[in-house]
From TrEMBL:
A GO cellular component entry from the record: cytosol
Coiled coil: none
Domain (Helicase ATP-binding) ranges: 172-362
Biological process according to GO: DNA modification
Organism of provenance: Flavobacterium degerlachei
Protein name, as recorded: Type I restriction enzyme, R subunit
Length: 927
């Protein structure tokens, strides 16, 4: 037992999996087929030799398992011929037909083939199927894959072209036994309706047993449930729920008498892990968390939900929540997978094996009139772009984050803040007010027909995306003031709003009030609000797909009758477009397909706690949580520490921190290993390793047990919000840029074209440009006076083409590298862009920095090694060139060199190499 070979270890693992799946394992010398429904007999003799395992169900042979050692996992498909021969062989003492159910397994990797299928094809499975399943399958005249060929041609009445394409191509994909299929349909084009249509056909014609509809937020689950319940089958004219059972899972219990199950992926993960899940964990889209575990906590077999429990899984919003930790839910089930998304990225295409059965993007939907287009209106303020400063000694409001209680306090040092800090650390009411006032003033021009019978402008339905709940509160207060309206005019719709968010959402969708809704999270994705005509972004979004989903709230078409009936009586036309008002630069901010998930620094405490509660108990995560709690403990009053202990089963913060750090402590782990090995002396190594792993896991479970309590998690998050926010009432904000993006693009294009033409027309007249264009770029140098003269001539002849104006025009149209520090630096950067030296506008100091790094690297790689004093001096020369464009001997009498010893110091450092260094830097830095 102690010296098992790889084959024996593999069979031990297979035995354990079979027993977990309900099979009774017997030796060939002690057969008792009446011992249970499913019997797996080792080394059963056939006419071509002994089979590793023969599976009997209800005393009939039904299957074969060909066992291989773990290293053979990469060769399992090569074993299929061998296992097939055993399946077709005659069993000792039996006159059997060929056995249909065939596995090849190493105990770690298992492949399965049902030879009753039209074109039998092996597939990876998480583990073995249950005897009850084989018993049921054996009674069926056709397999599921065979029944997929029985689905009739799709009736097209009442379906859009894109829906017909999606369902027809998907059903063809099923017939070809492709395990995964991806449907891309623009938000608002009827993805869920399409899904319910093909789910209905799978249940009716392919006789599918159960179908799982996976979402990633509770809100989307509730919405999907509503659509299933309101769906009427065109072929039957009855409600879906009159024909099939629909269950939305809200606990760990899964009834077995429904046909459609709706669940968040978080809940299904917790069900498989057999852990409790608070509903609060289903409110947030997991894709928006900034940290995920490096090594996912493994899902184990759950006999209550075997791998064959579902036949199909439909994954809504499949671009965002099926990776990392959550992918295990999909790997577990032996199913066909269908992904639904409006915004796939490369990961999505890769996961679904590039089997895109429907490609119906936003542009196609707009062309077909299924969705409406949008225009972008920019509102840019000085403080959102550049930040501000509150001077030492100014008395300002400070506000408790949680209670919002204000108090006066003097600033004890200059408080410099950036636009990104707004509405988190710093709140500037003037910024919010300036944006809201600009929106209010420009809405009548955007919707000139919205005047009621009394001549009063009717505000179209408008949705504001805010950064936080606190930010939303500030926006609501200022909106009501600026529009001169009552409470019901503007309301908050988030999971944390005091008023029932569902009822407010229902009012916003169907009633006159509220006219304006403010949300943080709840209706960012997947919510149908047809009368919505304006989206105001007051928060940035870094995820490209998430941003597209948020924009999708406004894409729905809406007839003039529906628009009037659902809250905008003055509407004179059907909804033919919507408006995005960009007050944060979200249209131009850099977007990524996915956010980095591997490092914990910068993750909010709320996200850390949520990850731990969801089973992310990696060392990084527990260490991060311990460090956060240590910092929190230092800031709490004694009263708050007692409140913490009350929520944490009497444990103090220090005790919990010790347990968190203890969970991965090498000494603690070593003790477990020694103790287990001592107590299990003589046991098989695989059992000892399993016991050690269980002991280690218990350490972790003990450490995180208190965090399963949602009240404790909420307490920790809320108590930390007692930190103060500064209310900047000193700095008044102003509009720096406002208007339609298309108009701005046209203006920017005109500015750049005029600048290029001016440079081209004057390149032979201006000394600096003559030198620039005439010489090989490696030998181009500038003098400060040349560039100064050129700048003055440009501003005199073409004041609208000042370098900073042209720079902003480039920023409007394309990505730029760096920011402008002066007009002269901007001008050099622009000349390089126009001349084609730089492919994008790059701040000249960035160019100099890069060239300097390359030059130093090459020098240091050779025989010349610069000393630290030489490097300090070279960096000063580099910075000087970045601002003055060249350097010569006379410049060493100027700042900053004169303070460090001037030309004599340069000679002392570099000696006879001095002039060569100066000339070389002039040459390479401007390259």
């Amino acid at each position: 037992m102690l010296n098992q070979n790889p084959e024996q270890i593999a069979r031990d693992n297979i035995d354990k999996q079979l027993m977990a799946c309900g099979w009774i394992i017997q030796d060939k010398k002690r057969i008792n087929l009446a011992a249970g429904l499913g019997i797996a007999i080792r080394e059963y003799q056939t006419d071509i030799g002994p089979a590793d395992y023969v599976l009997f169900v209800d005393k009939n042979a039904v299957g074969i398992i060909e066992a291989k050692r773990e290293e053979e996992g990469i060769h399992l498909t090569s074993v299929e011929e061998q296992s097939s021969q055993y399946a077709n062989a005659k069993l000792r003492l039996l006159n059997n037909d060929p056995l249909p159910f065939v596995y090849e397994s190493t105990g770690e990797v298992t492949r399965f083939t049902d030879y009753r299928d039209p074109k039998p094809r092996s597939r990876n499975v998480f583990t073995f199927h249950r005897p009850e399943t084989f018993f049921q399958w054996s009674k069926e005249t056709k397999t599921l894959r065979a029944r997929l060929h029985d689905i009739p041609v799709l009736p097209i009445d009442g379906l859009r072209d894109c829906q017909i394409t999606a369902i027809t191509n998907l059903e063809q994909s099923f017939k070809e036994q492709k395990p995964k299929a991806l449907i891309q349909m623009a938000t608002g084009s009827g993805k869920t309706f399409t899904a319910i249509s093909f789910v209905y056909r799978l249940l009716k014609y392919a006789k599918a047993k159960r179908i799982l509809f996976l979402v990633d937020t509770k809100n989307l689950g509730e919405q999907a449930e509503g659509e299933f319940r309101s769906y009427t089958a065109s072929e039957d004219n009855r409600l879906f729920t009159e024909l099939y059972g629909v269950t939305r899972l809200s606990s760990s219990f899964i009834p077995d008498d429904s046909q459609v199950y709706i669940s968040t992926i978080q809940r299904m993960y917790s069900i498989l892990k057999e852990t409790d899940l608070d509903e609060s964990a289903e409110e947030e889209n997991p894709n928006e968390r900034t940290f995920e575990v490096k090594t996912a906590v493994p899902v184990g077999y759950n006999e209550k939900v075997p791998i064959e429990f579902f036949d199909f899984v439909v994954i809504d919003e499949c671009h965002r929540s099926i990776y990392n930790l959550w992918k295990q839910v999909l790997d577990y089930f032996d199913v066909f997978q269908i992904g639904l998304t409006a915004t796939p990225d490369n990961r999505t295409f890769g996961y679904f094996n590039q089997n895109l059965v429907c490609d119906y993007g936003y542009e196609k939907a707009v062309i077909d009139g299924v969705l409406v287009p949008y225009n972008v209106f920019t509102v840019e303020t000085q403080i959102t772009k550049e930040g501000s400063v509150i001077k030492l000694g100014e008395k300002v409001d400070k506000r408790k984050r949680l209670t919002r209680k204000k108090f006066w306090e003097a600033i004890d040092e200059d408080e410099v803040y950036t636009g990104k800090q707004l509405d988190n650390d710093i709140v500037n009411p003037s910024t919010i007010r300036t944006i809201i006032r600009a929106v209010k003033d420009n809405l009548p021009a955007m919707f000139p027909d919205r005047v009621d019978e009394n001549g009063i402008f009717e505000v179209p339905k408008l949705l504001v995306f805010a950064k936080t709940d606190s930010h939303a509160e500030d926006i609501i207060e200022i909106v009501r003031e600026e529009f001169g309206e009552e409470n019901k005019f503007c309301k908050k719709i988030t999971y944390k709003s005091e008023e029932d968010p569902k009822s407010v959402l229902q009012q916003f969708r169907n009633d006159y009030y509220p006219r304006i809704a403010v949300t943080v999270d709840m209706i960012a994705t997947g919510t149908d609000i047809r009368p919505l005509e304006v989206l105001l972004f007051m928060r940035d979004v870094k995820s490209r797909s998430y941003y597209e989903q948020m924009k999708g709230r406004g894409t729905r078409t809406c007839s003039v009758e529906e628009l009037r009936a659902k809250g905008t009586p003055s509407a004179k036309f059907s909804k033919d477009h919507f408006v995005i008002i960009d007050a944060i630069g979200v249209e131009n901010s850099q977007k990524t397909d996915s956010r980095p998930l591997e490092k914990a620094p910068g993750v909010s405490l709320k996200d850390v706690l949520a990850n731990v509660a969801m089973g992310n108990t990696s060392e990084d995560m527990l260490t991060t949580l311990a460090n956060r709690l240590i910092r929190l403990e230092r800031q709490l009053s004694e009263k708050d520490k007692l409140k913490f202990a009350e929520q944490a089963n009497g444990f103090t913060i220090n005790h919990i921190v010790k347990q968190l750090l203890h969970a991965y402590d090498p000494d603690a782990i070593e003790k477990i290993e020694q103790k287990t090995k001592g107590a299990m002396r003589g046991f098989p190594p695989i059992d000892i390793d399993a016991a050690i792993a269980k002991g280690k896991q218990q350490l972790i479970e003990d450490a995180v047990a208190v965090f399963h309590n949602p009240d404790l998690r909420d307490f920790i998050v809320d108590i930390r919000k007692k930190y103060d926010q500064i209310i900047d009432v000193v700095n008044m904000d102003t509009i720096t840029n406002i208007g339609w993006v298309k108009d701005q693009d046209e203006a920017a294009t005109t500015t750049i074209t005029d600048f290029k033409n001016w440079i081209e027309n004057h390149k032979d007249e201006i000394t600096a440009l003559q030198i620039f264009y005439a010489q090989d770029y490696r030998h181009r140098t500038f003098t400060y006076k040349m560039i100064k003269d050129l700048s003055e001539k440009l501003k005199t002849e073409k004041p609208l083409l000042a370098p900073l104006t042209v720079w902003r025009a480039y920023e409007q149209l394309e990505k730029t590298n760096g920011s402008t520090k002066s007009e002269l630096i901007a001008l050099v950067s622009l000349i390089r862009r126009v001349a084609g030296i730089d492919s994008i506008v790059t701040s000249y100091d960035k160019t100099v920095d890069k060239n300097f790094q390359d030059w130093v690297f090459k020098k240091q790689a050779g025989t010349l090694k610069f000393t630290d004093p030489q490097m300090q001096w070279l960096r000063m020369m580099k910075d000087y060139v970045a601002n003055s464009f060249s350097i010569d001997r006379d410049d060493f009498d100027l700042s900053p060199f004169n303070a460090e010893g001037g030309l004599s110091k340069m000679w002392a450092l570099f000696g006879e190499e001095m002039d060569a260094i100066i000339n070389e830097l002039n040459e390479v830095l401007a390259a």
